Amino acid sequence: MDPVISRLSLESFESLPPHARRCIFWEVDPTTAAASSSAGCGPEIGAYESEFDKEAWISAALLEWGACGQIATDRGTGVVVGTAFYAPPGRVPRSRLFPTSPVSADAILLTAISTEPGYEEVAVPLLDAVVTDLVRRGVRAIESFGMVRSSGLPTASDFDVDAGIPGSRPLPDISAWSDEEIVNVAREILDYPQADLCTQCMIDAAFLKDSGFDVVASHPRFPRFRLELDEGLGWKSEVEGALEKLVVMAAIDLAGRERTFAPIGRRQGPTG
Q: 124 with 74: CB under 8 angstroms?
């Protein structure tokens, strides 16, 4: 699939998939989210939803900071099949509450990359679009909290580079744990009461690792990752963008020349 990737805008907000449009797991302080929530993010997790608060957060971010999301659209149907959200950590209240917090001051936090069923492959171009956008804006690094989960992914030991965590028990292999089991553990280790965890809004640790992110704060379940953004990439993206424009301009010019010099055909005079 070759999706159309574009920046999130207020005009495209209504076209977002329901969960991406409503979930405020990252965007609203959990102590205040409960008051404005209308429903949970899922039957097994109790995180909060509020379409009003999500739209308000996006609106404020766009106005005061700039683009805070990328969307992937199916070319054939025009349906949004994937989203990515990112912002300065100061705009993400939940970012302060993980055992591997805080996010570095020079980094932008990638909070979530979500795809609709059957469109998992659009996660890669969504991440590429985030990186390209932030490089052009002069951002030094991207950080993200990963979640170790799902059968077949690397186990916790792959992300726990520190030998042990004070006060923790020996960790079993959690590669096959269900989301519900992870949520129950999260409620024990996160730093606020009623610690609800929206697993749909957490990025797989394996995906971040495979995408070139490095672990900068280890944890058996919620490692924090970092991707350095080379300044040279900004120069490269600018050149690529300029070349794309030149190609388009050349194609337009060529089409115009072909129309100008196309044979018109001879006018036939009177016969006889």
A: no
In the three-class reduction of DSSP (H, G, I as helix; E, B as strand; rest coil), residue 122 is classed as helix
Strands in the chain per DSSP E: 4-7, 39-40, 48-49, 69-73, 80-87, 107-115, 141-147, 203-204, 214-217, 224-228
pLDDT along the chain (272 residues), means of 10: 91 96 90 52 54 95 96 96 97 93 96 96 97 95 87 44 38 57 56 62 94 93 92 48 58 60 52 49
Paired residues of 204 in beta bridges: 147
Structure tokens at 183: 């949520």
Residue 117, CB half-sphere, CA atoms under 13 Å: how many? 0
Residue 160: per-residue pLDDT: 46
* Spatial contact of 208 and 144, defined as CB atoms under 8 Å apart: yes
Of 221, 224, 102, which Cα lies nearest the Cα of 168?
221
- Concatenate the DSSP letters of all residues of 26-95 into one string: TTS-HHHHHHH--EESSTTT--EE-HHHHHHHHHHHHHHT---EEEEE-TTT--EEEEEEEE-GGG-GGG
Note if the bond before 102 is cis, omega within 30 degrees.
yes
- Looking at the DSSP bridge assignments, the partners of residue 143 are 109, 226
Dist CA 4 CA 1 (whole Å): 10
Closest CA to 199 of 221, 173, 227: 221
